[in-house]
Amino acid sequence: MNILPSVMVALMLLDFMHPSEPAATALQTATRYEASGSGQLTIAVEDELQLGSVARGATRVPFLVLNLSASCESDIKIQSLELRHTGLGSADDITSVYAVDGYTRVTRSAQFDRSGKTAILRFRSHVIPKCSATSLTIFADMSQDATVASEHGIALSGLHGIMSTAKETVLSSGDDKKTVVALPVTAGKLTARLLTISGPIRYGRIETVARLQLTADVKSAQLLKRITFTNDGRARDMDLQWFSLQKLSGTVLTRLAPRMRGYTITLDFSPMFILHAGQTIVLNLKAEVRGSQSKTVSFIIEEPSDIAASPYRER
């Protein structure tokens, strides 16, 4: 297997401060029918999400929760969702927006266009099995240069912006006027750099399949929660098994993850790991190799938000 290096900088999540009180709103329902397709897709926009104030540069800021369900006629594949920016702030203050299922990002990030203030999230392969339901959270990353006190919200554009294999689509939504306000403070930075791997990766052995260098800036320590790696090579699913992140000393910092989900693997720190202000650490991504030599490996951090962390106040 071959390992290729990758370098990127990740901005950190800043937990919400000063959440606003939820208000009761009337629920609005609309339905659209297609000439082709099968089954009914129902999307309900959750109205209990509390928005508030975040620092400029904050990542993984939750704006919207969507509850999706499929009727019992057939599985329904979600292809894309169109979002619109609301609020008095500039859409340029949001650098990227994306959808997450649980802890797994299921779309690439998108940006709002300046003219229509809309963004389209395209799903790789997201299927809701018949007679079942799931929830998606729409997250966004704020610009380091976001205008202070600017207000931002995200809403579905409407039925016309929901693309799926369903014949009937039902959308229920409430208040889309809740906003996030940018504070006059800046989130700390975490620099993530993937280092090269030396030597071959051998079948049937537990090998180092990636090396990750993390550095916290001097503004604040960072509390590491989880990291998602994406393989840019051919190996997928069961080709690599039993992943963990370890210090150079061999200390295991994460729960074991049995396999990749497609080309991605998410590792949860247990317990969460404190990276002190100004500290640099190198972590080895370990995995048991089960694929052949043709199943190449090239792990990357695909999006800055794939590193979930928050500023940590040290004594």
Topology of this structure?
Layout: E1 6-11, E2 28-33, E3 40-45, E4 53-56, E5 61-70, E6 76-86, E7 94-101, E8 104-105, E9 118-128, E10 133-142, E11 151-156, E12 162-164, E13 168-173, E14 180-186, E15 189-195, E16 206-216, E17 221-231, E18 240-247, E19 257-259, E20 264-275, E21 280-289, E22 299-300, E23 307-312
Name a few traits of the molecule.
single chain, about 325 residues, mainly beta, seven-stranded mixed β-sheet, 23 strands, about 0% helix, flat, disordered N terminus
Overview in brief:
This protein has 315 residues and is mainly beta. It has strands spanning 6-11, 28-33, 40-45, 53-56, 61-70, 76-86, 94-101, 104-105, 118-128, 133-142, 151-156, 162-164, 168-173, 180-186, 189-195, 206-216, 221-231, 240-247, 257-259, 264-275, 280-289, 299-300, 307-312.
Descriptive overview:
There is one protein chain. The protein has about 325 residues and is an all-beta fold. Helix content is about 0%, strand content about 55%. The chain has no helices and 23 strands. The strands form 4 sheets. It has a 7-stranded mixed β-sheet, with no helix packed on it. The chain is flat. The N terminus is likely disordered.
Assign a percent range to the helix content.
under 10%
Q: Could you give a short account of the major beta sheet?
A: 7 strands, mixed
The CA-CA distance between the termini, in Å, is 45 Å
pLDDT < 50 stretches: 1-26
Alpha plus pi helix count:
0
Beta strand count: 23
**What is the alpha-carbon Rg in Å?**
21 Å
Percentage of β-strand residues: over 45%
> Based on helices, strands and strand pairing, what is the structural class?
mainly beta
Order of helices and strands: EEEEEEEEEEEEEEEEEEEEEEE
Mean pLDDT: 84
Trace the largest sheet across and list its strands: 2-13-3-5-10-7-8
Overall outline: flat
